[in-house]
From TrEMBL:
One of its GO terms (molecular function) is sialate O-acetylesterase activity. It comes from Panurus biarmicus (Bearded tit). Transmembrane segments: none annotated. This is SIAE acetylesterase. SUPFAM superfamilies: SGNH hydrolase (SSF52266). One of its GO terms (biological process) is carbohydrate metabolic process. The lineage of its organism: Eukaryota, Metazoa, Chordata, Craniata, Vertebrata.
Amino acid sequence: FASYYGDHMVLQKKPSGAVVWGHGELGAMVTVTLSGASGLIIMEKTAQVKGPSGTWTTVLDPMDQGGPYALTAEQGLENVTLRDIYFGDVWLCSGQSNMAMTVLQVANASQELAAAARYPYVRIFAAAPARSHVELEDLEQIDLPWSIPTAAENLGHGNFTYFSAVCWLLGRSLYEALGSPIGLVEVAWGGTPIEAWSSRRVLQACGLPEDTGRHIWVDKGGREGPQISFQHGSCFNLKLALCFASSLNLALSSSTSPYQHLSGPQTPSVLWNAMIHPLLNMTLRGVAWYQGEPPFLSPRVQQPPLSHQALTSPSFWGTGEANAFLNTDQYNCTFPALIADWRRAFHTGSAGQTEPLLPFGFVQLSTYRRRSADDSFPRLRWHQTADLGVVPNARMPSTFMAVAMDLGDEQSPYGSIHPRDKQNVAHRLLLGARAVAYGDKDLVFQGPYPTRAILEVTRGLLNITYSQELICRQRDAQAFEVRSGISSPKRCEREGNTDGGFSPPQVCCSSQASPCQWLPAPVVAVGSRTVTLALSGCRMLVLGLRYAWAEWPCEYQACSLYNPQGLPAPPFL
């Protein structure tokens, strides 16, 4: 069998058929049998080992949820049997360090670990971090083979190792909601940009430029390969996917491109090649993704300008996230393109068993610095929705999003870039999964979003209508912006905090005398589905409105607007 099949695994249940594959002697016939607990053969399939790599593949008939089963592959006198196999739903969890944070690291970790024994039918698997300059057929290494969850041995193995807290909490909640066995596959590496998880097709589709630095690749044994030079945009002895590398927006003291020094997991396509491509034959039910923050916003490495040692250290790429300052404004292309590309690849690789619109959930960026004036975080949050604010949408069908900008954790021992409240993240993902992946049409899984805005010019007011009932948790004079200024409201005010570190709605005003500038538009009234903003400094042409447009827009679970289900209104522009 291929590397990611083993005892205790979960295979995808009906209506899809689970793909099973492995290695054998070229030309030989392999017989695959599925047996019940009594040893009765339920299903038998045959497949021929084909070249050039000597692999066989078969698709099992769709199976109802349940188990345990045994799966045997037999070639001549040789056979291998995998036991304690269940059929259920298989979810892939990928991304960076916030996905790699283990159950050991989250809030209430001891209680979460102690509860592991109650979920023997949520099975877990973790691929080892790996990179390759070519697409691999199978995983090179596994951190955690298919396992029944246990507190110390696997769920709480260590920091940023296995098992992913977001993935586990989502899977556990899916099991509670559905009653079906759940298989969870963790494929994550901290501090890696989306380009590293993208195939060559994605990079080309988004027109990402080639770099003019030099790259180092590492082979299976960890040995550095030849240094490849790039001259005038041309590429020699290297596939196009590795030719690409755009410049990091780092304040480097040197004038040379940072990619002249960087190698490893940030290189475009290397994680797609080594960690995603090998899994394409797997039949999946859904994907959960948590990626995007900048890698150098880690407490373990110095802030820019960064030394060559810091840029190439494992901690640099192992603890943060990556796209808030790398190709930020290309994320509205790269992210939808990655989703579409993964869907096509998994559908094709599984012989059509993984559905073409594979449900894809993701976590919108949380927070990092409380009073930062940098707008890279809100821009990336916006780009995560393909600049449409909510999902699913026309550019991102069959997707769902967990808003996390209100879950900031300044006291996290792993740095504020790694908030410990992964329970709320998983709960918000669960709601989206139930609605989008499982068709629960009556379930509210999104926060309120504006549907229209009416300007009352004579009164200097802007009335915004929302899609849902509103709950105002904080009347923040800075949450909305219109490039205008306003006085503080009297009710629903934040107590004891008047600093400018939060971002209310803002409006963009324009006059011939001055260029457009964003200014606060204080909330003066909140109705059941309406918000009224004062535009005292902006009564001419209003060009734009934005909400929660800040790196750290609010205190913990205290942004301005929520719905009655406790879901925050997402940022918008």
